[in-house]
Amino acid sequence: MARGCLQGVKYLMFAFNLLFWLGGCGVLGVGIWLAATQGNFATLSSSFPSLSAANLLIVTGTFVMAIGFVGCIGALKENKCLLLTFFLLLLLVFLLEATIAVLFFAYTDKIDRYAQQDLKKGLHLYGTRGNVGLTNAWSIIQTDFRCCGVSNYTDWFEVYNATRVPDSCCLEFSDSCGLHAPGTWWKAPCYETVKAWLQENLLAVGIFGLCTALVQILGLTFAMTMYCQVVKADTYCA
């Protein structure tokens, strides 16, 4: 009976981790594709220049693949050490995500202030040598969200030391349109505009986060259940 339960949990555990591993492959693939095709699109942060979407996806995908691989091998081999390692790694990730979420909601105001200050520092790197990624990122955001600057279009005045903005701030794009009068530029602040867009899509973000948490809890349950079954089977055989 114990052996039959073990086999059932084993195949469920293997199927779960196979999907987990394939998901990691998908995330890694998207990250590599972004790095190869959109390599010029990087982070807006001057403090964390490597914190781009491509790099985050590559790191996340690699880590998920590694955890899924450990889980698959642990299930197939019925190895207590690998099963426990998988459980601890997944638990560590779950606790880290929960901690980040709690800190984010607890220090939202401070994070807002720091983010705006950091983004304003990043504006001074716009158009400079070696910062093509940041330049393209700001151009895309200002064009797509119809905004200009972090908190106001005047943020660019400090960058250029003149009354001008990038051409991506213009209502109607044309070469050197950023030198025209303020009436021809977008007036909405980019930080608040993007923040409002994220809040409008908060439900989708929440559902994604909840699904992620449920998948992780399911993985933890499978891992611990199989670990206990392996221990019982070893004790029974002994």
Automatic annotation (TrEMBL):
It comes from the Eukaryota. InterPro entries: Tetraspanin/Peripherin (IPR018499), Tetraspanin_animals (IPR000301), Tetraspanin_CS (IPR018503), Tetraspanin_EC2_sf (IPR008952). One of its GO terms (cellular component) is vesicle. PROSITE patterns: PROKAR_LIPOPROTEIN, TM4_1. CDD domains: NET-5_like_LEL. Keywords: Disulfide bond, Glycoprotein, Membrane, Transmembrane, Transmembrane helix. Belongs to the tetraspanin (TM4SF) family. This is Tetraspanin. It comes from Ictidomys tridecemlineatus. The lineage of its organism: Eukaryota, Metazoa, Chordata, Craniata, Vertebrata.
